Amino acid sequence: MQKIALSSPVGDTGAPDCPSRAVVVMGVSGSGKSTVGERLALRQGWIFIEGDAFHSKQNHAKMQAGTPLTDEDRESWLEALGRELARHAAAGVVLSCSALKRAYRQRLRAHVPDLAFIWLEVGRDEARQRVASRGERHFFPAALIDSQFAALEPPHDEAGLLHLDSEHPLEALLAQAAEWLQRNSHAHDA
């Protein structure tokens, strides 16, 4: 695995459209997307892209100061992530990225049309607790959790989506994600 920068399913929608080699692990901060994404990439033998590593210094500073990012703040970030996904899709790639809004997900799909998403859903209190436990070592403060939930447009009706409860054990999440990718790669190849 190359690293760049650094339960049971709740729902499985549009499975036949799931690609076998390009996946975004998405969710609010504290949902576990970096941990699940990195471990899933390792398990698959794919490249892992840590989305947070592509934020500008200005975006990091803004979040560290407790100010939520705007759509404009995210534009160049999403464009860079889309290019990275496209560059590595043939080799197999997992990206950790909040992808909170449908427009953000569509922007990533513009680079990799059959891009799949694994949505790690987490409760607000659990997300806040997880983010607070990171302490000073992380740029994202727990005070911004409410803004993440306010921005979230759940991808319930989007194709190529696996919806998991991120409060389940990590190994169960990884097994379910890997099984979904394998099952749907066969459907995609048929």
What does this structure look like?
It holds the Pfam family AAA_33. It comes from Castellaniella ginsengisoli. With 190 residues, the chain is of the alpha/beta class. It has one domain: Rossmann fold. 44% of the residues lie in helices and 16% in strands. It has helices at 33-44, 57-64, 71-88, 102-109, 124-134, 145-151, 170-189; strands at 3-4, 9-13, 22-26, 47-50, 93-96, 116-121, 161-165. Strands 1-4-5-3-6-7-2 form a 7-stranded mixed beta sheet, sandwiched between helices. Helix 1 (33-44) packs across helix 7. The longest helix is centred in the C-terminal third of the chain and has 20 residues, at 170-189.
Summarize the structure.
With 190 residues, the protein is of the alpha/beta class. It has helices at 33-44, 57-64, 71-88, 102-109, 124-134, 145-151, 170-189; strands at 3-4, 9-13, 22-26, 47-50, 93-96, 116-121, 161-165. The chain has a single domain, classed as Rossmann fold, CATH 3.40.50.300.
User: Strand portion, in percent?
Assistant: 15-25%
What is the name of the CATH topology? Rossmann fold
Residue stretches low in confidence (pLDDT < 50, at least 5 long) are: 1-19
Mean pLDDT: 83
Shape: globular
Rg calculated over all Cα atoms: 15 Å
**Number of extended strands:** 7
Integer tally of domains: 1
- What's the architecture in CATH terms? 3-Layer(aba) Sandwich
Helix-strand string:
EEEHEHHEHEHHEH
- State the helix count: 7
Q: Major sheet: order of its strands?
A: 1-4-5-3-6-7-2
- The proportion of residues forming helix, as a percent range, comes to 40-55%
InterPro entries: P-loop_NTPase, Therm_gnt_kin
Catalytic activity: D-gluconate + ATP = 6-phospho-D-gluconate + ADP + H(+)
Keywords: ATP-binding, Kinase, Nucleotide-binding, Transferase
Organism: Castellaniella ginsengisoli
